[in-house]
Each structure stands twice: as C-alpha cells, then as structure tokens.
Amino acid sequence: MTERSPKRGFAARPSDPEAWVRAPQTSTDRTQRAEFTARLTIDVTPALRGRIKIAAFQRGLTVADMLRAMLDREFPADGRAAS
Description:
Blueprint: H1 17-22, H2 46-59, H3 63-74
C-alpha cells in the first residue's frame, strides 16, 4: 500500500503568497479561457447584485467583463493607485 502525503489544512497560509497568487489552477474545464484566469467570489446584497446586472445590461456587457474592467481601472498592472 502507498503512504499518503500529509495534506495542508483548508485555511493553511502559503509560505510564499506571491507564488501562490500567481500559480495557475489545475482545471479540466474546457470552457475556461485560454489565458490565465482565476475565480474570485464575493458576497453582495441582492439589491447590489441587481444594480450590477442592470448596469452591465445597459452597457451591453456581461457582469464579469464589466467587473474585470472596473478592477483593472482600480488596480492597474503598473501598481499606481487609481485616483
């Protein structure tokens, strides 16, 4: 019989946060984009969710695309803070 390797706890902190954040997730989901993506889950009120969905629809965007653009503006790759 093979011996199991010790597992890290569910909420264990990574030893190198930068490498952990940049590490690609292993996924067999064929619908995932070819570029590197990572899922982010947040909790919002039903009212806020509705406002977000309406705004995205009015702009002709998906909620995901609209929020990606907003996050790119707020957290630019060059590290400068949005004003």
